[in-house]
Amino acid sequence: VAAARILLIISHEKCEKQLADMAFREIAPFLKEDSMQFSNRMFPIHFHTVFGDQAEAYALSKALARDLEDFHMQDRMHAAHNAAAMFALMGAYDKTVSIGAEYSERAETLGAKAWAHDFYSVTAAGYIMQESFESAQEWHARATLTAPEQARGALSWVYLANQSELAIWSGNAHDAQSA
């Protein structure tokens, strides 16, 4: 299932629905809705969010969010972050904010600074999508405090996008360009 998920990620990035459909058809018999394996749960959510049935993606994401406590810790943070992101892609920004806020606190408690940064960033993004910019600023400030020295690259894209959006909202063209 993990290998098929990589194929799905490639399909998503390249906008190749036929490839995604083929991967889904081949792996569907092995998927279990109650699995506690990250890839097993995320594959159908990712597929339906991007290429399939949005209602199914939403229902599966809700089930994943409900079951987060049952995941082993190594998968729980990853699953929570992906659930928050999938809810954002479906326009369920309140759920993005809820999961992001809860798991940023958990990450801080565990001393998991990188996870805290990611959850602060996804929470800020959820607020930006709701056009609640003051709240977004608060969460982005928290993300800034936990940002890696070089907040550049694939894992920091949400943080950098938030920085640009907030700079535009506040009328700060210099900061918008530098993000």
On the 0 to 100 scale, the average pLDDT is: 89
Could you estimate the helical fraction of the residues in percent? over 70%
Sheet/helix structural class: mainly alpha
Helix and strand run: HHHHHHHHHH
Poorly predicted residue ranges:
none
Shape: globular
Roughly how many Å apart are the termini?
36 Å
- Please tell me how large the radius of gyration is: 17 Å
State which percent range the strand residues make up: under 5%
Strand segment count: 0
Tally the helices: what do you get? 10
Largest sheet: none
Brief description of this entry?
The chain has 179 residues and is an all-alpha fold. 76% of the residues lie in helices and 0% in strands. The protein is globular and about 50 Å long.
Characterise the protein shown here:
With 179 residues, the chain is mainly alpha-helical. The protein is 76% helix and 0% strand. It contains 10 helices and no strands. Helix 8 (133-146) crosses helix 9.
